[in-house]
Specification:
Blueprint (H helix, E strand, L loop, with lengths): L2 H18 L12 H7 L5 E9 L2 E9 L4 H11 L3 E4 L17 H9 L3 E4 L2 E4 L2 E2 L8
Antiparallel strand pairs: 1-2, 1-3, 3-4, 4-5, 5-6
């Protein structure tokens, strides 16, 4: 897929898909992070996270991987590729602009240091199979 076509697709289709699933760009799931974690102790939660598809950052905000699991799986299927989620301080892509192709070294770091990923249609947390409501954090 050409870069311009890919960027246009992200801007329209992907954001619409996520917003229809209640994952608006820059989403805040709780004003108090400690309170949210205490209410959901077995959930894998990533605050201020970045979501990547292929070699591009396509979304940022708070994600509860347990509650958003189905949406993330559907997104990966919809895009026809793997997606990766990193915490705010886990990658060098956090300061990069949305909708731009990232440097290969940044993508290598993202793929090697993710919090949650859908790879080949299967969910992983920190390199291990993801277990929904299974205390992955």
């Amino acid at each position: 897929m050409a870069v311009d076509d890919k960027v246009k697709r992200c801007k329209k289709e992907v954001i619409d898909f996520l917003e229809n699933s209640k994952m608006v760009l820059g989403r805040l799931i709780a004003f108090d992070k400690s309170w949210y974690l205490n209410k959901n102790p077995d959930h894998l939660v990533s605050f201020n996270s970045n979501l990547y598809w292929d070699d591009m950052k396509i979304w940022y905000g708070d994600i509860d991987c347990d509650k958003d699991y189905t949406t993330l799986l559907e997104l990966s299927t919809y895009l026809g590729g793997d997606i990766y989620i990193t915490r705010e301080s886990q990658d060098d892509g956090r300061m990069n602009s949305m909708w731009t192709i990232l440097d290969k070294e940044i993508i290598k770091k993202v793929k090697g240091n993710y919090t949650f990923a859908i790879i080949g249609g299967k969910a992983y947390s920190k390199g291990k199979p993801f277990v929904k409501n299974g205390g992955n954090r």
